[in-house]
């Protein structure tokens, strides 16, 4: 299968499978899993935080972070397009009694500081207490500029807010900017990382923050039923994702640009190459193309796409240059 639907579809490599099979394990709820402990300690240090928590998914990592930063009746500021507002089932409101205050994202994925400032509620019992600004990087494949992150830190300090990064794909941002991950993480009180997207682990996300914050997330993780037992089996693959697979993300970015160029050669498809910053591209597909039929016919040939307007295509560990050529050839035939 050549699967362009998401970078979550990657399969664990044989090195991961091997590491999983020989991992030392224990009961992580007791704090007894040496592989989880090692991953958490290593990850905290690597990203410039005091402490880390390994958990099951990016959604859980974000929810734990929101619940650790905010109490019942507090609110968080975020983008209208933020994953932790729009795509996580309203978890912070449902399970944390935390009110989201979304603000329209600008075209480049940033949120305007004037609009954010206007949304901060006065200290008055009529209002929810504004506690947190949550950013996302990358957001829909776009990279937030480092200067914007520095300004966000100043803004948060000025308004006495905590600053969280949904960094599901933060390593893609670091690769696109060609900077060490700490150039990004240094600005934040907390950060999450998905290990099961472009980094290729089968399962798992990290929450990073100071010690007191991570202890709160550990408590909420248990409350939410997310305490795992011999999770070292997963942490072993996660460690390889972080040590071996971060450097190759620029290959995915190059492949996404290549894919965009190829699609632009095809009648009925257009991609703005300028907007292809990482491993994700959005193609405008003309009405004359029957997307349902196209998706079905390509699926029969082992090529998976998600239809849509625009159509999102994602490159990853399991997509090579040759796979892209195979896809483009099949696409040309299908359209003809
Ligand atoms: C995928 C994603 C998440 C959630 O991760 P899951 O592991 O799918 O729960 C959170 N934030 C962003 C930006 C994502 O892309």
From TrEMBL:
The keyword Membrane does not apply. The modification N6-(pyridoxal phosphate)lysine is found at residue 197. GO terms for cellular component: cytosol. Its cofactor is pyridoxal 5'-phosphate. Residues 3-284 form the Aromatic amino acid beta-eliminating lyase/threonine aldolase domain. One of its GO terms (molecular function) is L-allo-threonine aldolase activity. InterPro entries: ArAA_b-elim_lyase/Thr_aldolase (IPR001597), Low_specificity_L-TA-like (IPR023603), PyrdxlP-dep_Trfase (IPR015424), PyrdxlP-dep_Trfase_major (IPR015421), PyrdxlP-dep_Trfase_small (IPR015422). Homotetramer. PANTHER family: L-THREONINE ALDOLASE, L-THREONINE ALDOLASE-RELATED. Belongs to the threonine aldolase family. This is Low-specificity L-threonine aldolase. The lineage of its organism: Bacteria, Pseudomonadati, Pseudomonadota, Gammaproteobacteria, Vibrionales.
């Amino acid at each position: 299968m050549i699967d362009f639907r998401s970078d979550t579809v990657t399969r664990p490599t044989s090195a991961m499978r091997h590491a999983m099979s020989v991992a030392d394990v224990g009961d992580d709820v007791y704090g007894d899993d040496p592989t989880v402990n090692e991953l958490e300690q290593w990850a905290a240090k690597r990203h410039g935080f005091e402490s880390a928590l390994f958990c099951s998914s990016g959604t859980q990592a974000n929810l734990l972070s929101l619940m650790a930063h905010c109490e019942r009746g507090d609110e968080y500021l975020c983008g209208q397009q933020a994953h932790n507002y729009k795509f996580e089932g309203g978890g912070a409101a449902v399970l944390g009694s935390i009110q989201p205050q979304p603000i329209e994202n600008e075209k480049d994925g940033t949120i305007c500081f004037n609009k954010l400032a206007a949304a901060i509620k006065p200290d008055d019992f009529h209002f929810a207490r504004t506690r947190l600004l949550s950013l996302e990087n990358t957001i829909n494949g776009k990279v937030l500029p480092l200067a914007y992150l520095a300004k966000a830190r100043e803004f948060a300090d000025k308004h006495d807010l905590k600053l969280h990064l949904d960094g599901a794909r933060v390593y893609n941002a670091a690769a696109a900017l060609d900077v060490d991950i700490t150039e990004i993480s240094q600005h934040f009180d907390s950060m999450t990382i998905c290990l099961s997207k472009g980094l290729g682990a089968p399962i798992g996300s990290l929450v990073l923050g100071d010690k007191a914050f991570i202890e709160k997330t550990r408590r909420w993780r248990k409350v939410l039923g997310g305490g795992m037992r011999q999770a070292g089996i997963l942490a072993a693959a996660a460690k390889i994702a972080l040590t071996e697979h971060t450097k190759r993300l620029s290959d995915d970015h190059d492949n996404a640009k290549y894919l965009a160029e190829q699609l632009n050669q095809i009648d009925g498809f257009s991609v703005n190459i300028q907007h292809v910053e990482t491993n994700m591209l959005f193609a405008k597909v003309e009405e004359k193309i029957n997307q349902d039929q196209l998706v079905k016919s390509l699926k029969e040939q082992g090529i998976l796409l998600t239809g849509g307007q625009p159509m999102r295509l994602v490159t990853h560990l399991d997509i090579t240059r040759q796979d892209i050529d195979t896809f483009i050839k099949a696409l040309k035939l299908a359209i003809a």
